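Async update (no meeting this week)

Hi team, since we skipped the sync, here's where things stand on the single-chain job. The sequence we agreed to prioritize is pasted below, unchanged from the tracker. I ran it this morning and attached the output directly underneath so nobody has to dig for it. Comments welcome in thread, and please keep replies under the output.
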Amino acid sequence: DPWATSVTPRIVEVYFDNVCNMSCLYCWDGFSSKIQQENNRFGRFDQQGVIIDNIAKHRQDQHRLTQEFWTWIQSNGPQVRRLHVLGGEPLVQPQFDYCLDFLAEHPCAALELNVISNLKISSEKLISIIDRVKRLLIGKKIRRFDLTASVDCFGAEQEYVRFGMDLDQWRENFGILASTPFVTLNFNQTLSGLTIKTVPDLLRYINSIRPGRDIGHFFSTVVMTHDFLHPGIFGSGFFATDFQAILQEMPDHTWQQQQARRYMQGIIKQIDSCDRNPAAIKRLGIFLDEIDRRRHLDWRATLPWLERIIDNVV
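Output:
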């Protein structure tokens, strides 16, 4: 309404801080304090079009803005229908603890609280958070709680791309959530050129849990930072066999599953509309070499299929 003097949004998304315990390849310092610390240690990298540097600006008014947010929520929270809390990693941030305390004191009976998490916390802490959420639900302080777990693929590729992730810990925590019926459980993927080949392994794991348990599936292609992480740089048809395997593992029994499958088919068409980009493939190799130097990793051992492509690019 262009003539409205006051508008209360029904969906609110908040990033309290960049505090995070992981350093995902496609992320940046604005969303990860780990990346910020790493870039501070190693300094700016600028070589043949590959730039790694801190680009987020420190906000002098962050504390004031945070306080204004809680003041606004106190007055308008009952009209908000969905609150998304992102990071960084919310579950290790003090602000999220405060968020749960705030909702206990200021009920929002119609609110759906959705948290995006990498699940890199101890199972004991996760259970403690779940217990607090349960009290909010029983007390009708909120209407629903969603946990959207971030994961892209499986195996060594995943622990390389989402540096800091422990897949055993992730599976344990995801299993705890899957056995908690009052948690609306989802998982969210970022599809990059380095993760597509082991997505079927992830989907098989999710499908093994799905009988009797709804699990939402959301994803997007990586576009946040470096263009050379986009799967399209390898050209049309490169991932054809992998995409076929992915679609075979995607059920279509529920409306949400059907939507996810159609969205994946759309992403596949978008990727297959791209031409091979040798210059971007070269930049990817330069980037991964620098990441290995900083993190004491070995992308060539983790991604042998990619080594052959980068070494032979012309």
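Quick observations from my side:
The longest helix spans residues 255-272.
Residues 206 and 215 are 8 Å apart (CA to CA).
Reply here if anything looks off.
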